[in-house]
Amino acid sequence: MSSVCEDELRQSFSTLHQITLAAPVRHELFSWCPVMDLLTFSPDLRSLWLYRMTGELIWKFSLPEPTVLISCIAWKPDGTVLALGCSDGTVRLCTTVDGKMIHKISLRRSLACLRWTVESLDTLRSRNNELFEGVFSFDVTSILPRLSPLPSLLSTDSLYIGKTTVDNLLNAPIQHEKPSRIDMLVSGEDNGNIVFSIYGNFSIGDLPFPKRLTQLLPLEQVSTDDLSFHGFITKTRTDDILLVPLRVHFIRRFGSDLDQIAMSSTRVPALLSFVSDVLEIIHREWNVNILKPMNTLLQSLCTAVSTSNPRGTLMELLIFGVARGRMKTWMTEQYPERVIKAWRKGAVGSYENCRKLLVESLIPACERIGILISRINGLAEWRDRGQHLGLSPETCKSMLDILKEIMIGAHRMLRDLNLEYDNYKSFIQWVKYMYDQTMGTALKDEEKNISIDTSKVSDYITKNMSSPVINMYFSTAPKPTDYKSTKPINLRNLAQQLEEKCHEVFKDAADRMRGHAVFGSPLTIKAACDVDNLKVVSRIIQPNEDVVYMIVVMCINSKKDEILLLRISVSQVPSELMSPMINVLRVKIVNEEIISLFFVDDSKLMVLLRPLTDMDYTSRMVTLEFQDLFTISSVVDATNISTDLYDMIEQVPQVEPSWAQVKKFDDDFIPAQITLNGRKGRRVGCVLAQDMQRYRVFDLDEEEEQEEDIEGGADEI
User: Fold this and answer.
1) Residue 307: inside a domain, yes or no?
2) For the segment 304-322, what is each residue's pLDDT rounded down to a tens digit?
3) Residue 449 falls within a domain, yes or no?
4) Are 685 and 599 in contact (CB under 8 A)?
5) What contacts 24+ positions apart, CB below 8 Å, involve 313-317?
6) C-alpha–C-alpha distance, residues 703 and 14, integer Å
7) Is position 140 within any domain?
8) Model confidence pTM above 0.70
9) pLDDT, tens digit, for every residue of 73-90?
10) In terms of DSSP H, where are the helices of 306-392?
11) In a domain, 424, yes or no
């Protein structure tokens, strides 16, 4: 690479915008969306702001728990979802559209590292799924009614009161026209466990680092295009920096079946959670607007007429048709017309809501669950595929049996609810008629022709008041065997049993996947490192399908005079993982502190520098075309390292940097952190000022004009 005098370089990176935020932010969660011009900021690590690069606020998200902090974030590769790793051991997935949380993964420990990777299109095409490509091509759920958000009045704690969540988790198609690329959310816990979540939802459980190593803290993670190799930069308790390789075999082994398992493992639990919420809302609706007013009526009647059998008293009134004495006083004074109207309005609305929830929410959700479980059961029954997937046909059939009982119970409840509602309407008409007769109120014209079915009034008093329909479906009792059965059934218990079976099925599949993940021998890069001043980034580069490199760029001490670049060959032999022959570059840095490192693409590295002494300029942002430099790199054999790799490479001579691009900053804007999107055809970056309140957006490829016109320079939002 030819050297270019910096004085001859024009100012690179044309400035597009300069924005002043409403408040200072933290640099830890400063990130750029991989496909859209969106930026994340956090003022306090408890909340997250999403901005357009032009300074327009899109949404704010805050954690509901006052003591929980956001420790790391990761964008889904398509930019539609943002994962938040939190100090309570949860990963919360929020949509980019409105910031609503659509899923939560519960881990055990605080998150130290979070990355979201996706397989390449070439890898997708090469996966051996042509033979079975059409097996799951028809999406039966596409012809089913769409599920609607739950009413918020009695379900404020439900995840499914928002349309975005319902559409993303419940109504999204279960089969795409073309095979989809597998993406993987990789979470590193602060106790040294790695957790893979397929599509950000299906967690395969903990992958602990090898026991021969001390407890490791993941700092950085990269993966190959086919997601078969993962490299982790980690820190030990003694501040040793290690590179730990991991080989993952289950993606290619499971093939297209992984789509079905991962998708179903998310959709089925979400639908079961939806079913549980529907049952809870029905129960609350009933208790608040039907059962409570009815019990109030009966208690009031007991007190007024001094009886322990209020239903018998009402039957006497129905038979004789005249209210006398205390009964008359109760009807005219303690239970006036306004109370009757309020009860009728609330009860009628609740009956309608319960029926609507059954018809439009519970039963359709169960139909979707049945389709998904049947698909998984089909894979389990398929001997050549189900066995290596870890799926149990017996457990799947058990799930279908429980679902059948829930469906029977739901249809029975709907039938019985309609009958009770019909009885209630006759009963409340009769109560109104008796009140008008007792008060001597003349009937309105529309009321004169209304006939009251006294048999239904009698059924409501003797049957429904003593044993409401709701009790039959929320009580602990034997299970029904058919639709015509009148035995009680507890739908909530059945839903819980189904959730437990669902967990069992997908846990077996996750266990089988973990068996196809193997860690390799670690490489100690630097022992007893000054972690506080450590800067490290890594990237996987694949020039062709036969050559794979892992590039590690480190600054062991940000105030030391060099940047260390390592190029490690990823072996195609599963047992070896990494080649011991490592290309090493030591790039000389003079009188400058390294503030930040960031890969622009597979050949260019961006470095943010700040002078250590008074110089004729302040901070600057430069790019280094490192691929060309590796042609003059030294090769180190890491087979027999006594202490660490760094001791072996200190004898490697430093090389002078030849910056491809340079951007100098004036004293008014001292940069503190950079982030880039690196997207081809739209490569832009953002630099955050030291005051943590201003940022500049720049073009990575355009040179800056001599007279710069910065858009939005004085705007505050």
Assistant:
1) yes
2) 888 889 889 889 889 988 8
3) yes
4) no
5) 314/461, 315/458, 315/461, 315/462, 317/434
6) 5
7) no
8) yes
9) 999 998 999 999 999 999
10) 310-320, 325-329, 337-357, 363-381, 383-389
11) yes
